[in-house]
Amino acid sequence: xxxxxxxxxxxxxxxxxxxxxxxxxxxxxxxxxxxxxxxxxxxxxxxxxxxxxxxxxxxxxxxxxxxxxxxxxxxxxxxxxxxxxxxxxxxxxxxxxxxxxxxxxxxxxxxxxxxxxxxxxxxxxxxxxxxxxxxxxxxxxxxxxxxxxxxxxxxxxxxxxxxxxxxxxxxxxxxxxxxxxxxxxxxxxxxxxxxxxxxxxxxxxxxxxxxxxxxxxxxxxxxxxxxxxxxxxxxxxxxxxxxxxxxxxxxxxxx
Length: 255
Fold this sequence. Notes:
Layout: H1 18-28, H2 35-54, H3 58-81, H4 87-112, H5 116-143, H6 166-190, H7 202-208, H8 213-225, H9 232-239, H10 242-252
Helix pairs in contact: 1-3, 2-3, 2-4, 3-8, 4-5, 4-6, 5-6, 5-9
């Protein structure tokens, strides 16, 4: 099940895990496994990638990074197939992503003897990149009656959906808010009026998708396969310059 109506669907270069993720979700639809279980599986896959990186099993590390990306797509697919969307699952997914992103970059710092300051800059960059992508994608989904689990403005805990408790939603929202508020507010400050624009064209969304987590993990995996792990941290620092380019396109061309 797509997140957008057919006429607004675009080529998402970060979403290569969607097809295998859908296959996994379809295989699990008649089991007791829930989307939250699948999210937990991608956490395990991310931890396995880190262990393999530390011990220089680069091919295995690349495999687990890509598997993590596929499972990251599968949990949402399973929620849509089973018709069990939840804010708890949405926040759990996002919390797991940001923690794993930090640990991935921390591991690259460890195995390349890079600067911890550069590692932190890369982490900030990678999170701002993902926030730009998610900000525009969520705005588009909300403006065209697409998937509504994610909200443009996460400024308060939402009302729990069927099958989840309000207490769980409140707890996960508070954790999410602490981890993401700086990044969300930074991008909102840079483009406050984005939600008032017409639906973004497909070419723009495809450009923005290079900031998606799937694309970021794919780059990490390729760098590991070619033993270029020392370039990962510098790349994500420099890559962040495109944030201002994409926001400039939205503000001055797509206004």
